[in-house]
Amino acid sequence: MPKSRQEKETVLQNLIASLKNAKGAALTVFTGLKVSPDRAFRHELYRQGIEYSVVKKTLLRKAFQELNYPSEGVEKIQGNISIATSNQDAVAPAKTLDTFIKDNQTVSFIGGILESQWIDASRVKALAQLPGREELIARTVGTIKAPLSGFVNVMAGNLRGLVNVLKAIQENK
Fold first, then answer.
1. CA angle, corner 99, sides to 98 and 100, nearest 5?
2. CATH architecture of the domain covering 5-130
């Protein structure tokens, strides 16, 4: 059953609000996606706090025009368009979609939005390859800690050497 004009207007306003509030968004195009992988994928997105929906091209074009994103190529896209947005993590939609795309060749990136700026599909893929926030923090802490750990090991090595010399002297007596 087709949606009424009022329902479409509500969907458009929700889409605009979702895109405005999102730290990151990823758009994909898909054809022939099976129901069971899609349900599992939507469950994973929900678990991570990512909003996901299939969007009509005309509504997406209108939302892009409202937000001053490039909207010229939207009508030319072949297939169904889906959008995943996150208000908490800018990289999460791209990473989760990239994992899903590896298993489902019927889905591919169109582009995305990062910090209210449009990015193309290749940049979304590159964004998806970045390590997560927690991993970056762990690497930074490890990098900061490395010189101190090295210093402690050098100092402990000198003490160990002194203890070994003293033990050798004790055993000789």
1. 90
2. 2-Layer Sandwich (3.30)
